[in-house]
Automatic annotation (TrEMBL):
Protein name according to UniProt: UPF0104 family protein
Subcellular location: Cell membrane
GO cellular component entries: plasma membrane
Primary location: membrane
Species for this entry: Profundibacter amoris
Keywords: Cell membrane, Membrane, Transmembrane, Transmembrane helix
One Pfam family per UniProt: LPG_synthase_TM
Amino acid sequence: MTRTAPEPAPLPRPARRWKDVLILGGLFALMLVGLFGMAAATGWEETRAQLAKLSLSYVAVLFGLSLVNYLLRGLRWHMFARRLGLPTGLLQDMRHFLGGFAMSVTPGRVGELVRMRWLKRETGWAVERTAPLVLMDRASDLAAIAVILGVALSMSTRGIAGAVPVVVVSIIVAIIATRPALLTRLVTYMYKATGRWPRLFGRVRMAARSLKQFSNAPVMLAALALGLAGWLAEGYSFYLLLGWLGADVGLWSAVGIFVFATLAGGATGSPGGVGGAEAAMVALLHMEGVPLEISLPATAIIRITTLWFAIGIGLIIFPFAERISVRTQHALENR
């Protein structure tokens, strides 16, 4: 009796893809409605006058600096994948990393875990074996942002309310997430405290032990350097944007406001930090003496050229990444 090859996993149904696109469109519309509503309250003429100051070349620079951030962090993802021993190439890892941006607006960005699904299909590695990639990626971002925010606080003329505890918490979380023994003990304590989900906690402990692959100075320093360069590129784009719109905000103040607002948005748990990040950015710019006719368009533009640009890239790459992963899984199963 001959065995038939297993059918490949189906691609997401068109209806489901349209539903995801509608959700993204709804979130984007909510952000614009909120900002436009505030702009209407302050006067459309002033806002339009500020937007008229931006040429296409300026906007291209903003997109270019955001792309630098994504490519550097994608290179860091590839470095982590190689360190973990995954049999993946640079272009393959870049496809996974950038394609995952399509799911950035899920609560807590958990949708980006789709990268692990692609890895399982293409390499056969179980989720618990690739989980350290996600953990290291998030921890490295936290560490880089905490360092940038700490430097911004020391270099800017004015402080950022609430930034010091955010820096401290970010550094503590980054340290815990990158220390295998410490994280394993924490998971064990949580399991004993709850007494539930033994299989889940067992997988988390296995993933935590895998972090030993990354626990050396050269890897951590390289990851930190790539994260710093990437996030500074986007922070610098915010500084340039404010200058082009006529706001007299220092470099480190602008960078600090950008990274703090990004963290604040993520802390709200809202999809992509939509709402929280924009509110924090406008409030902090107001504290710097930036009028609403500048802070509102600046906030809208920087969010479009960072968060929504990343989502746009992800939406373009996602269907190709999904199709390639299914095709690769099918080929592996037929060997």
